[in-house]
Amino acid sequence: MSKDNPLKLLPRAMLAAFPLLLAGAAAQAQLIGALQGSSHLSPYNNTDVAGILGIVTARDNNGFWIQDAGDGNALTSDAIYIFRSSASKPLVGSAVSVSGRLVEFRPGGDPLNLTLTEINASSGIAGAAVTVLSTGNALPAARVIGPGFLPPSAIAPKIGNMETAPGYLLQPNLYSMDFYESLEGMRVALPSAIASGQTASGDTFVVSSQQVPAGSRVPAVLSAGNFNGQRIMIDNRITAAPTVSAGARIDNITGVIDYSFANYRLLLTEGATLVSNNLPKETAAIAPGRFGIASYNVENLPGNASTTRFTQIAGQIAGSLGAPQIISLQEIQDNNGTTNNGTVAADVTLNNLAGALNAATGKSYKWVSVDPVNNADGGAGGGNIRQAFMYDSARVSFAGMVGGALQDVMATAGANGQIVLNLGAGRVDPNNPAWTNSRKPLVTEFSVDGQQIIVIANHFNSKGGDAPLFGVGQPPDEVTATQRLQQAQVLGSFVQGLLAINPHANIVLTGDFNDFQFAASLQPLYDAGLTNMTNTLDAGDRYSYVFEGNAQALDHIWVSPNLLAKGDLAYDVVHVNAGYLDQVSDHDPVLLTLGAIPVPTAVPEPATLALMLAGLGAVGLRARRQRRA
């Protein structure tokens, strides 16, 4: 035994009296590591065990953790949870002998979750017992997560079910899910960590300070092929944790590793030290003469929201965004919010916001939107979220007819290459099945400095319902992506039709696309010839939303080739909400500024135009076929 073996504190005769007995089997296993095993399921699952020895390291309402001196195998955890909810629990530091049934507990009964290996020593289990052998013992040394021992960023191999893959052994040097599994229940210390998201319900995701990219605002920005498996949640179930925003530094983090509800957690057992919590917020300015287009998900804003809520949102638009000339809004709710009484109008909501914005800026913002069919566009029941535009009427003109909820926007060729829309504001193919229970794109034609610009506000299908990153299925099943792909195909076909009329048209797509700039579901928008401005940012700046400590870009602005070539563009995500405790919305707004709205010149020759229009007809025919399918 090593000199720090906690079981050495017991008399030798007492140790000899408590060998590990596996009920129904002749084999003996002396250490917890044999019970935990070297895969995600214990080889002793659903087996009665007796005389398991260890030191109590932590307790919660339902039981306690014990840890022994280890078996020297890096794949096997040296600790285990003892479920004993209705009985007394030994004090931390007690040396105990435990008997009961070893089980793999699946939190919440959710088949997507991994399991937690535990011994059920409750009174209903035959032979269950917890015997205290001594008290006041030193705790096993915490395993330090730091230089030479850091979790990988890759989460898991792509092998399907992690629990049933034949012969699979943990690979903690390659995958973070295996790394944390090999430490399940053990005492672990993080000498220094940086918060990768804001505290929510007392819990905070962090990354070891050793793994934070130099100069980054937040330590875990999601990118293609990297979903930041190095993150772990600091859980306050046992001991209170600091309440912080992303970017905060927390030192002296010590606790036990647990798993529940699709995440590994470090349950604090000692008070951590908050070192800093001062991530600055950003502001943007629009230089004189430049033109600004912003996109902002205002997180379920109803007409009956408080005056303070409208003032806060208007304050961010006016101050943090520099009062753009066009603001694309998502999650505008109807006048009475989630009161589910058939109300769909949002004129009160939008008038309240316009009033607050005009008071904050001294400008004259007006709005345009299309009311949806009641409860047909997803979101909270009765809320009827939709997209809308605010526009500075001193520089931006809108004089078109506003369409109905199920009325198609149609485009034809006008004089001098102008695209003629049948509606000044309407929805893209709203009867297409791609938009079932989801928001339909809002197409609006504006005139800026005498030039036509077509702006399309979007809010694609939510990612809610996808399998968790730290779940049993690998890679996780992204079930919601199918509908987003269909939506991108419909929208991409519409844009292709516009560019077939005039390839030099000024077209901007804005909104919450609910997927990442590299996602396959958004590929049809690239195929339509659009450029995603998110890709122009530094890698560490590509986020507008933080989910479970993963900073990610869901909000995007796309531009047509003419704007990219001639618009003198600048783009930014203005970080004022995502990752902060005092957020006004859960999304950061994004801002595109232009030097000027380009003239849509270079109208195609007649023969070329005829071919383009033929292509547009094919696009329209394909869309009609999709609707009938």
Helix content: 10-25%
The number of distinct β-strands equals 33
Question: Cα distance, first to last residue?
Answer: 70 Å
Question: Which second-level CATH architecture of the largest domain applies?
Answer: 4-Layer Sandwich
Structural class: alpha+beta
Shape annotation = elongated
Number of helices: 9
Q: List low-confidence stretches.
A: 1-29, 605-629
Strand coverage percent: 25-35%
Radius of gyration: 29 Å
| Assigned CATH class of the largest domain | Alpha Beta
Main sheet? 7 strands, mixed
Q: How many independent structural domains?
A: 3
CATH level 3 topology of the largest domain:
Deoxyribonuclease I, Chain A
Give the overall pLDDT as a whole number.
92
CATH superfamily of the largest domain: Endonuclease/exonuclease/phosphatase
